[in-house]
Amino acid sequence: MRISPTWLREFVALDVDNVRLAEDLTHAGIAVEGFIGEGDAVLFEMEITTNRVDAMNHYGVARECSAIYNLELQPIIPKLPKLIQPESFPIEILDPALCARYTARAIRDVRIEKAPRYIAERLLIEAHHGINNVADSTNYALMEMGHPTHAFDLDLLEGGKIVVRPAVHGEKLKTLDGIERQLHPGDLVIADAVKPVALAGIMGGWDTMITPNTRNILIESAWFDPATVRRTARRHSMHTDASHRFERGADWGATTLACDRVTELVLETAGGKLAGYNDAVARKVSHEPIQLERSELRRILGQEIPEPDVTRILRRLGFELTETRASSNGAPEEGVRLALLQPPDAYTVEIPSWRMDVEREIDVIEEVARVYGFNNFANTLPSFSGGVVELPHALPESKTRTRLLALGYDEAVSPTFISTDDAQRFSSSEAVALENPLSEEAPLLRNSLVPGMLNLLAWNFNREATDVRLFEMGNVFSMSSERVEQRKLACFAATGSVGEKGVQLPSRSTDFFDLKGDAEAILNTFEKQSLQFTTPASGYFHPGRSATVVLNGETVGELGQLHPDLAAERKFKQEVWIAQLDLDRLFAVPLREPRYQRLSRYPSVERDFSLLLDNHVSYERLRTAIEGLRIPELESIEPQELFRGAGVPEGKYSLLLHLVFQSSERTLRDDEVSGWSRQVIAAVQGLGGSLRG
Amino acid sequence: MYIVPKLEDFSASALDAAARDLKSALQSESAAIASEADWKVLRDRWMARKNGVLTLLNDQWLKAAPTPAKREVGQRVNEVKKIVEEQIDAALARVSSTVSASRLEQERVDITLPGNRRKLGIEHPLIRTMNEIVGVFKAMGYSVAEGPEVETDYYNFESLNFPPNHPARDTQDTLMIKGQQGKPLRERLLLRTHTSPVQIRAMEKQPPPIRIVVPGRVHRADTADATHSPIFHQVEGLAVDTNITFCDLKGTLDQAAKAMFGSSVRTRFYPSFFPFTEPSADMQISCFKCGGSGRLKGERCGMCKASGWIEILGSGMVDPNVYGFVDYDPKKYSGFAFGMGVERIAILKYGIDDIQLFYQGDVRFLRQFA
Lengths: 693, 370
Ligand SMILES: [Zn+2]
Fold this sequence. Notes:
In chain A, helix 4 (117-124) packs across helix 5 (133-145). Chain A has 20 helices and 32 strands. The mean pLDDT of chain A is 94. Chain A is elongated. Chain A folds into 5 domains: 2-69, 2-Layer Sandwich (Phenylalanyl-tRNA Synthetase, Chain B, domain 1), CATH 3.30.56.10; 91-281, 3-Layer(bba) Sandwich (Phenylalanyl-tRNA Synthetase, Chain B, domain 3); 290-374, 2-Layer Sandwich (Phenylalanyl-tRNA Synthetase, Chain B, domain 1), CATH 3.30.56; 394-499 and 506-587, BirA Bifunctional Protein, domain 2 (2-Layer Sandwich); 605-691, Ferrodoxin-fold anticodon-binding domain (Alpha-Beta Plaits, 2-Layer Sandwich), CATH 3.30.70. By secondary structure, chain B is α+β, with helices and mostly antiparallel strands. Chain B starts with 11 loop residues before the first helix and ends with a helix. Chain B has 2 domains: 12-106; 125-148 and 197-369, Bira Bifunctional Protein, Domain 2 (BirA Bifunctional Protein, domain 2), CATH 3.30.930. Chain B contains 12 helices and 11 strands. Chain B has helices spanning 12-32, 36-47, 53-63, 67-98, 100-106, 125-139, 153-156, 197-205, 246-261, 320-326, 342-350, 363-366; strands spanning 143-144, 150-152, 189-191, 210-219, 231-241, 267-274, 277-286, 295-296, 299-300, 309-318, 334-341. In chain B, a hairpin with a 2-residue loop joins strand 8 and strand 9. Bound molecules: zinc ion (ZN).
C-alpha cells in the first residue's frame, strides 16, 4: 500500500518534512518501508501490520499523525443535496452474523465516462489506471478512508431489492474478473430477487457491473463477517483490496459515511440525482468500554507515562476517556480538589468503531506505548534468581560434536526433505510425507541423514573437492502409528586422502579402519561395558566392509563403505565411507567417568608373537580366546602387523601380536612370563593357528 | 691402545693396579676422539658384545679367577663397568657439543615450507552463530529448552493466539503433514514455522518464574533462492515472572545485542505485530559496519542500506491470551518473548550473499570459517 504525504497534509497541518514524517510514523508502528518518486509527488511505500486495517488508507494514517504530533484532524463531511422523493429499496439480511450492516444509495441519471483528472491522479498512487467515474469514485474513497464499496447497475438488479444471503448449492456467479465461479453454500453473496450479483466483500458480479450504458446505479457500503469473507476468498483463490480489508475487520460505523462520500464523488463526476437510501442494520458491531488502570500501565511498561500524554494520545486516536478515581468517600468538592492534584487511578475507554483490534486493556496500553515512543522507555534488567538448566543431553552432545571436529570432520547442515527412493533405500522406517511439498522430487521428511550427506558429498565432488570429511547432527522423522517420531542422529562421512598433509608425508586413502577408529574415538567418551562391531549392516553398505555398532548390547549405529552400486549410481569415482549413530540411544549411556589407577612401580614385560592364522579366524575370536585365559597380569593385546601373500600359505594370514604383561605388586619373573606365553600359544593353536617359524 | 691383560695374581693390590691401568687408558683414549664417528669406534671397542673390552674383562678376569677370588673380582669388574659406561657417555656429550657445527648444518630444514597440516573440523557458521547467541542468554541466566520440529496446529498457532482462519496465519506459509484432514484442526500436524511453540510447552511444564532460550530448526513453504530458504534456524527467548516490564525487555535485548555485536552498538525499538505478544517490538541495532553513520569511506554503506540501522529481531510482552492457554495468572505475571533468525544474523555477521551456501556442505565455503 502507498500513501501520498501531500494527501495526508489535507487532513492534518503537518509542519515536518516527509523524511521526518516517515521516520516518526515508523516509530509509531505505521511503517514506511521506502520512498517512491521525489518532491511533492513523493509516495511512501507502507508496510502496515495485519492488525491495523484502520491505517491502510490516507485518513487512517492522518489520524496517526494527529496523535503523534498532537494536531487537529480534519473530518470528512460529505455534502449531499436533500433527498426529495425517496424511492423505497428494500434490503434483506438473512443472517446478521454474516452481514451486520448494509447501507445503500440509489442514484439516477448518471453519465458514465472517464473520471476527472483530480481523481485519476490519486488513483495512480496505487498505479490504478481508472475504469470509469463511478468505479473510480469507489476506489478513491477506499484509498481515502479505507472502507470498500461497490456500485451496481441498478436497472440490472431484478425485483427491486437486495438480499444478503448464503449461496445456494449449484448457484453460479461470473465475477468482475470474468471468471465464472461455482458457488459453495458457505459463500456469502449479495443477490437481487432472482440471482447472486456479488461475492460479499470480495468482488462484484459481471452481469450487473457499470457499463457505458448504465444510467442508474446502486452504491453498496456494508460490513461483512471477517472469517466468512476470508473463507470464501480462500475457497475461490481470490485476494482483493476489499477482501483484504473485510478479512481484517472493517469499520462498522463507517458504512454510511463511505456510502455518502462515494455518492458525493459520483454526483460530482457523473452527475445524476439522489433517488433512494437505505441503511439496514442487522446488528451492532462494537467493543465494550475498557477499564484502563494506571497501575497496569506501569506494571506492564515499567515506567510512569505522564497523565497528559496518556489522555492526549488516546483522544487523538479517537478513543473517548472518562476518568475514574477510587477514593470517593469525601465530599464532592474535595474530590474536585483532589482531581486537580493527582492523576486519576483509571480511565473508562470507549473504543472507536474502526479499531476492531482493540478489545482489551493490554491493547490500549500498547496504543499509549507505541505513540509515546518505545525509545522513550528506559533500558532496565529484570532481577532473577535461580540457576541455569542445560538440556539433558547438552554435555554428551557437545562432547560428540567436539570430538568429530577434532577428528577432522567439518560440520554440515543439510536439507530436511528427501526423495521417496532415498527414504526407502536408506531406512526401514516409514517416512513422513508432506501435504504440500515444495518439490515433487523431495516430498518426504528425512528418515536418515545418509541421503542428505551423499548429496553434500556429490556437491563437493562436482566442484573438484575430493578430500572431504563432513558430519551432521540432526533430527530424522518417521511415522509410527499415526504419530511422528523424531530422533536425533549423527552422520559422518570421509572420502579421499586421510590424515596429515605435508611435504614429507605419504598420502593415503581413507579406509575402513580410519572410519572405525573415528567411531571408536566417539564411543569411548561413553561408559562402555562392551563394544562390538558385527555384521551385517544395512544393504546400502558394501557387505564386506561394513558393520553394525553394538554398545553395551544395544545397536547404536552402522558404518562402512557406501555400496559400490550406489556409488556408481551417483557417479562417485571414489570410495565413500559413512557412519550413522543414533544419538538418542547413545546419549542414554552415561558419559565415561574417568577412573584413576595407581601407576605400577614395576617394569612391564613385552612379548611379540608372530602367528599364522586361517582367514576365517577373525581378530575378535583371537582376542576373545586370549582374554579368555584370564591372566590378570596381561595388560594389553595389540595387533601390530598383518599380511597375506608372499611367504604366507594360501587361505592364511600372518599376524604380529604384541602383548604386555605387568603387575602392580611385583616384578614379573621370567618363568611366569614364559608360562603365560605358552598358554597364549596354546590358545592360538586351539583356533587352528600356529607360531610362525 | 689398551689391551686387557691376562691376570695371574688376583690379590687386591694386583686388581687395583690392573683397574688403574684400565682407567688411565680409558681416559687417554676418550680424550683423543674428535667426532661422533670416532666416538662410535671408541664405544664399540670398549662396549661391544663381541670382543669389547668389557666382554673381555668378563672372560679374562672373572671367568679366569679361582673360585675364592671370584667375589672380589666380580665386584671390581662391576665397578670398572660403571666407570666405562659413564666415561663413554661423557665422551659423547663432549663430541656432540663441540663438533656440532657441521652436523647442525647438515640437519638444517627449510623452515619456510608449510607445517604438516593435521585436518581439524570446522564448526558450521550457523551452528556456531546459534551457539553464540544461546551462550549470551545463558550467561544472562536463561536455561536452554527444545521442542519437536513437527508440531500440532495447537502449539504452532492456536495457543500462540493465532485463531483458526485468522489472517495472521497468512504470514506463515506452513508445510503441512499429509493425511491430517480427518483430525480436528488443533491436532493436525505441521512443520513448525517458528520456535515459539516451545514457549507454550515450557510454560505448560512449569510455573513462573521461567526464563528460557530455545534454539532450533524451523520450516516455511518458501521457494529456495539467494535470500529465501524453506529451512532456517531461530533462537527464541522467554522470560515470565512477577514484575517483568517492557523496560526489562528493552534492557535485556540491548545488553544481548552488545554481547553479540560489540559494546559500542546502540539499539532502538519500534512497534510491530505478533499475535502472541503485545506490545510487540522490532529491534534494530546501529550498523556495526559503518558505526551507524550510513556511510563507509565516503560511500553508501551496503550493510545497512545507508540507514545506519539493521533489523535484528522481533520481541514483545507476552500477550495475556497466551497465559490463558497455560494457566498463568495474567494479573500476577508478566513477561517478554523474543525471536531471531540465525541465518539472518550469520549473513550479517559474515557478509554472506547467498543463504543456500549454508545447506550445501561446500567445503570451500565451510573452510572459510576455520
Ligand atoms: Zn552501515
